[in-house]
Amino acid sequence: MRNIRPLLPSLTALTAFEAAARLLSFKRAAGELNVTPAAVSRQIGNLEAEIGKLLFRRLHRRVELTPEGEALFGAVNLGFTGIATAIAGFRDAPASTRIVVGSTNAMASFWLLPRLKRFWARYPDVSVDHVISDTPIDMSVDNVDLSIRFGQGTWPELESRYLFADTIYPVCSPGHLASRPNLDGESGLTGGVLLDVHVADRWVDWKFWLGQQGLEYRPEAARHFNNYVIAVQAAVDGQGFALGWHSMIGGLIESGALVRPFKASISSPGAFFLTYPAAMDLTPEADLFADWLQAEAGETEAGEPAAARPAGLLARQGTQG
Q1: Which of 1, 62, 269, 303 has its CA 20 to 30 Å from the CA of residue 123?
Q2: Burial of 29: CB neighbours in 10 Å, binned 0-12, 13-18, 19+
Q3: Are 163 and 215 members of one domain?
Q4: Exposed, middle or buried by CB within 10 Å (0-12, 13-18, 19+), for 63?
Q5: CATH number for the domain harbouring residue 61
């Protein structure tokens, strides 16, 4: 990095200039700095001589910034503000610790984030940052302490803690269901618009789900997404049938934004696990978060009410056909 110190004037001169430029008064700047107006004037005069430009127009009983003064004031004010903000942050921030948690977008949006307020209510000094990815997260590269993954619980070089399995069933908006009064059981799905998602290995898509019911999947009837949150939003908006993972969309069912057209469901072929590198010990904070997360997961699998539906787009109830 280039050494810029030889290019900078004295901090005393810059301090006098910043106060005088902000207040547009040498006298008021002197009062703020607890020096004489002559001292402020001398510092600014030295600064102007050093840079070879006038910074103020000295008028009768007042001063104005020159264009060069305006430019320098913007830079100095920005620098002083940044320094003050950083120092205030050091002084005011409570002692806190930080952990980084990785998950898919859907897991973060639907399951984890609505519950984090309960964690922070109990442990306000623990900072939880997120790494969101719908492809497997490389925990060593992304500096992730804990990652929530779906699968069988065995991954190379990772330890895993079981969280919960899931139940998967068709969902749509009330309006979309009303637009299909002749829907005849699960077989009627093959004639409707299926909102299909492909995001990761072992993710249950419509082909798998229909196959479990002994029904044929027609790709031409599907609309494809690579993001489960967007697919659910499309279902809320009445654009077709989506597959609802109960842990994710249970709140939307409770709110009435989504409905189940049939009772048919399947158990997920895998489960959600909390993973972390086998070669590393968890920090006390990460271990604390892991224990809390497993307790939350236990409530999910025990059939406790799903978390409140997410705010924003997904809070809108779909009424379109």
Answers
A1: 303
A2: buried
A3: yes
A4: buried
A5: 1.10.10.10
In a domain, 320, yes or no: no
Quick one: tokens of 18? 């910043």
Pairing of strands 126-132, 97-103: parallel
| Exposed e or buried b per residue across 128-157, where buried means at least 16 C-beta atoms within 10 angstroms of its C-beta | beebebbeebebeeeebbbbbbbbebebee
How many residues make up the chain in this entry?
321
What is the domain count for the chain? 2
- Maximum separation of any 2 CA atoms in the chain, in Å: 93
Q: How far apart are CA 20 and CA 14, in angstroms?
A: 10
227 — pLDDT class (breaks 50, 70, 90):
confident
Instruction: Identify the domain boundary among 50, 69, 92.
Output: 92
Q: Do 58 and 134 fall into the same domain?
A: no
Question: Same structural domain for residues 162 and 267?
Answer: yes
pLDDT band at 308 (very low <50, low <70, confident <90, very high): very low
Question: What's phi and psi for 266, nearest 5 deg?
Answer: -130, 160
Instruction: Encode 305-314: b = buried (16+ Cβ within 10 Å), e = exposed.
Output: ebbebbeeeb
Residue 15 lies in domain = 5-92
Which amino acid is located at 256 in the chain? G
174 and 121 within one domain: yes
- Cβ-in-10-Å burial (0-12, 13-18, 19+) of 84 comes to exposed
DSSP for 275-320, please give it.
EEETTSPPPHHHHHHHHHHHHHHHHHHTTPPPPPPPSGGGGSPP--
Tell whether 50 and 105 lie within a shared domain. no
Q: What is the Cα–Cα distance from 158 to 279, expressed in whole angstroms?
A: 8
Provide the whole-model pTM: 0.62
Which of 92, 113, 135 represents a domain boundary (last residue)?
92
Question: For residue 262, what is the domain's CATH number?
Answer: 3.40.190.290
Which residues does residue 245 pair with via DSSP β-bridges, in sequence order?
Answer: 168
